[in-house]
Amino acid sequence: MAAAAAPPQPPSAAAITLPESTPSGDTLFTRIRLATRDDVPHIHKLIHQMAVFERLTHLFEATTDSLAATLFPPNPPPSFTSFTVFLLELSSVPFPATTDRNFAPILKSIHIDLPIDDPERREFRSNAGDVQTIGNDAAVAGFALFFPNYSTFLAKPGFYIEDIFVRECYRRKGLGKLLLSAVATQATKMGYGRVEWVVLDWNVNAIAFYEQMGAKVLPEWRICRLTGEALEAYATDSSHICFIKSLQSDKCLCS
Amino acid sequence: MAAAAAPPQPPSAAAITLPESTPSGDTLFTRIRLATRDDVPHIHKLIHQMAVFERLTHLFEATTDSLAATLFPPNPPPSFTSFTVFLLELSSVPFPATTDRNFAPILKSIHIDLPIDDPERREFRSNAGDVQTIGNDAAVAGFALFFPNYSTFLAKPGFYIEDIFVRECYRRKGLGKLLLSAVATQATKMGYGRVEWVVLDWNVNAIAFYEQMGAKVLPEWRICRLTGEALEAYATDSSHICFIKSLQSDKCLCS
After folding, report:
1. Where does chain A show beta strands of DSSP type E?
2. Is B160 one of the annotated active-site residues of the chain?
3. What is the pTM of this model?
4. Which residue among A119, B59, B207, B244 is least enclosed by CB atoms within 10 Å?
């Protein structure tokens, strides 16, 4: 579930000011690109951090292997037609101009008013192939995972954003906007009709952020979820489940 | 949006008892199959009926052409990997045993306690190729439209049900259960982790039905939607949108 624009938290007491920490008044270069199988270890860590933030680690079952198998299958479908990950990277030097036949990376720069201490800079060093050319400086700061959905009223596909996440030390710098904008821009490029995601009703900061981005929060709809054993119950031959009862006798009338 | 288990409504005063109406105490045969491009006119009518029920006709923009183009493209992806429509048909005679390389139709029968008058039986006569062999008797009674979603916590795909709809005269006969069960069973066959959909919070009959089916309603999550002009705003070159403002001067610092 989405956790962008998470309520800001104070820096962890354990945060170490690394030599690479960004000095105040500096410029950081950002890149949003399509993730590849090489990025799975970082994606796994990011999802886990999101589970910690949402206090839902008891639901966290993903492994690097299961993520790789499901997000980056051996014969991948065309870009954007299935599960898609945008990875957000930051660097103190500009990213090289690269070409990607499926998606041209989005390059921007941001001005940093306050120093950023990234205690996990080394664990999140980018695995991008071109990272050598920029001196191994790039760090993975966040991601968005999305996939096509469909509106029958519009008769158009859209995108559903399952997750949008920025690591704690990089929040409140407009990076969530960069990720959300990248998905929305891609949707318009494809002629899609909607971009949707979900938010926790108590996360007023996130709701304010999303509304500022032009989104409407739908107050009346609730999510229904069939999972775990309740879903597994349907794995048995469906003739064993009583679907049809007589209105008169309450007797099973399944064929 | 889903509208299954809609609150039952009294039969329309305009309902005509056709000669084909089902007598009390009779058996009806049901079939759930993958829809094809030939079914688009019926799917279009069903979606419109759903919009009427939800009082959302002002949002209804689908045409048979736009549905055909988006649901049944010329080079369709493998079954169940994209937008998928299950069509529910009813007949007073058994459906022929057919084979479908992608999905074996689900055949059942239900016992009818009360007569059913279907005033639209002719408009909803099935377009299935094998309908001739059963005397043109089969009628389309409902549909479910669903597509893959993805849980990062489970690192597994699932299904999201955008719509599940049964025509008014066929409600309260367990047919919504048949459709929902068909999607859930398909999810388990594919090793998927979740089936999700949404419900209006005031639709207590639907909520009770879904809970009876094993689903949990998640009370805290709200849907965010970016659509129409708010989405189109992202179609312009994103460098024209200010993403990054200086915390000190409120000046645009976008690159």
Report:
1. 27-34, 84-91, 106-111, 139-151, 156-166, 194-200, 216-218, 221-227
2. no
3. 0.85
4. B59
